[in-house]
Write a structure and sequence with these properties.
With 318 residues, the chain is of the alpha+beta class. It has 3 domains: 34 residues, no CATH class; 66 residues, Winged helix-like DNA-binding domain superfamily/Winged helix DNA-binding domain (Arc Repressor Mutant, subunit A), CATH 1.10.10; 175 residues, GAF domain (Beta-Lactamase), CATH 3.30.450. A 6-stranded antiparallel sheet has the order 10-9-8-13-12-11. A 3-stranded antiparallel sheet has the order 5-7-6. Strands 1-2 form a two-stranded antiparallel sheet. The longest helix is centred in the last third of the chain and has 27 residues. It starts with a strand and ends with a helix. The N terminus is likely disordered.
Length: 318
């Protein structure tokens, strides 16, 4: 609320934010003096040299936007952070040259980012570097995120080639979760998407592919956790050992239909050695998961896995 004191002593009004003055139904009043006039507003957008709290903000309180409709100040701050993250430290003059912004704007951005802990002045005069808080910005971007970013375009291309829907899944606890699905791009899909679907490790092609090819220590931990929740752990343990061994011999996980009308799924691990980032799967009509289908599509899926692995490795190097 804005305080308005252009009245005799004891006559004080509190005004709402400036944007509410555009509402013709609103009138501020003092019980003793009647209606009050709104404070004068600038009609022109403020310039780079105006007060930093409102710089680039047009009259009416709305933040300045970029050509694409985003908030210009946020875009500039992110561009500055991205620039600083590519250097150990950077001089103000170099930032100005790279970003093409006035020094006054860069000064304000640095001050704000510094207050929030993302940027700090370097030991060399006029130089700045990324601070500790900036590291947390990427904490949520995991190998699972990279798997979807890298693999999504590849699986969509493969689905356009073979028509069957593909999915990328990752481990979450003791289940496999579908992170990306090409069902919206497949003419043979039986549902809109499977993103978010959760599949048990011992009963799904994705789960068996992960269990069979992850490192032995992780496999033992996951196997123990799965059996701890089972009603018949000894029976499940025996069957799970057989399924894991069969999956390792084949080189892929396989789920065949339990009854007429069910689908079938083929799944391959995505990773190098025992380091598994996730699983790539292909789902077909149950009756069509035949030796001929496997022979036709396994080479295509293996090439897709190799391409995804190469893309993930390139992300790590960069």
């Amino acid at each position: 609320m804005e305080r308005y004191n252009e009245r005799p002593s004891g006559h004080e009004l509190y005004f709402p934010p400036a944007r509410m003055w555009n509402d013709a139904s609103f009138t501020a009043r003092c019980p003793r003096c009647g209606p009050a006039k709104p404070p004068k507003m600038k009609s022109e957008p403020l310039t780079e040299h105006d007060d930093q709290a409102t710089a680039g903000r047009p009259a009416g309180g709305k933040p300045a936007t970029s050509a694409g409709g985003g908030v210009r100040a946020v875009a500039r701050a992110l561009s500055l952070l991205a620039l600083l993250s590519r250097h150990e430290s950077l001089a103000l003059a170099d930032m100005q040259q790279e970003l093409g912004l006035p020094k006054s704007t860069i000064h304000r951005l640095l001050a704000t980012l510094g207050q929030e802990g993302y940027v700090v002045a370097d030991a060399r005069a006029g130089h700045y570097r990324i601070a500790a808080a900036a590291q947390a910005l990427g904490a949520g971007y995991t190998v699972r995120s990279a798997l979807v970013d890298v693999g999504g375009a590849i699986t969509r291309r493969v689905t356009r080639q073979i028509r069957w829907p593909l999915a990328l899944g990752t481990l979450e606890g003791t289940v496999m979760v579908v992170r990306d699905s090409t069902m919206p791009y497949s003419p043979l899909a039986v549902q809109a998407t499977t993103v978010g679907h959760r599949h048990g490790l011992p009963v799904s092609a994705m789960g068996l592919a992960y269990l069979a090819f992850c490192d032995a220590v992780q496999r033992d931990i996951l196997r123990e956790a799965v059996l701890a929740d089972a009603t018949t752990p000894r029976l499940l343990g025996t069957q799970l050992s057989r399924d894991i061994e069969a999956t390792r011999r084949r080189g892929y996980g396989l789920r065949l239909p339990a009854r007429r009308g069910d689908s079938a799924t083929l799944a391959l691990p995505v990773g190098q050695g025992a380091t598994i980032a996730g699983v790539l799967s292909m789902t077909t009509f149950g009756t069509l998961m035949t030796h001929q289908t496997l022979a036709r599509h396994l080479p295509v899926l293996r090439r897709a896995v190799a391409e995804i692995v190469a893309g993930l490795a390139a992300r790590v190097e960069n």
